[in-house]
C-alpha cells in the first residue's frame, strides 16, 4: 500500500483549505486544524478560558452527543488517508473519531452542508492521545469537503487529508502550471531534502521565507542535487519559472530541467542555465515534446523557493481524470 502520509495535505491552509463550520470551539478554534505548521505547546500558558492549545478543543459534554467540524479542501481530490493528530492533547483528547467526505459544486454555506448526504471514509475509530492517528481511505472518488466527528468531545491539533488533487477542468485556463500541487502534480523522488521538502516548491503563492522552499545540505563531492515531479497532465512546457527568492548565500549556481514521457528517454526543456540569488527567473522554452515527468537538477546544491512549469495539457486529459474520479452528474 502506498504511504499516504507522504502525499500532499489537501486540507492545508497553504493550499487554501479552511474550516467552514464547527459546532463548538469553546477552548480553541477549529481553524487550527488546517494550519500547515506543526503543533506547538507551552505548558502553563493560560488565557481567560484555560490552557492555550494549538488545535481545536471543545467543552466537556454533559449529555450524549458528539462534536463536528467541516473542512473545505484547498485542493479537491482523491483522498488516500487522513491523519487525526492529537499532539499535546493528553487528558482531553477524543477517544473516537470518524471522517466523512462530500463532493459539491460551488461554495455552499454551512446550512447546505450540514444536511447533505455524506460518504463515510473512516468509520468511528479509536484515537490515541498526543499521537498521529493514521487511517487509510480506499474510496477512489473526488471530494471537496471532509467532516471530522469526535466522540464525545475534546481536542484535535491537526487534521491532515492526504491525497491527490483532481482539479475541475472548467476552472483551468488553456495553459497552466502543470507542476502545481493544486493541479495534481507531485514530487516522486529527490536526492536530498535536509533543510526543506521539495514539495514546498510546488505550493501556491510566493515563498514567505527561506524555510518555505526546497533546500539541500552542502555537497562535499562532485555530484549535484535533483528532484523529479510527476506533472498534473502530459504537456509541452512553454515557460519555466525557477524562483530563488530568499536564497541569498545558498542559491544554486546553475540548473537544468529535463522531461520524459516514458521514464527512460529524457530530453532537455531548459539546458544548463546560470541562476542568481534571491531572484525569480522566467525562461520561455520550446522543447516541442510532451512530458509527463520533469526533473530539475541544481548545481551543485542549494535552495529553490518555487518551481513552475507552464504548459498546455494534452487534449482531454484533465477532463478524463475529473470524470474518472467523480460521481454521476459532476459536470
Automatic annotation (TrEMBL):
Its EC number is 3.5.3.4. It is an enzyme of class 3 (hydrolase). SUPFAM superfamilies: Galactose-binding domain-like. Pathway: Nitrogen metabolism; (S)-allantoin degradation; (S)-ureidoglycolate from allantoate (aminidohydrolase route): step 1/1. One of its GO terms (biological process) is allantoin catabolic process. PANTHER family: ALLANTOICASE, INACTIVE ALLANTOICASE-RELATED. This is Probable allantoicase. It comes from Paractinoplanes brasiliensis.
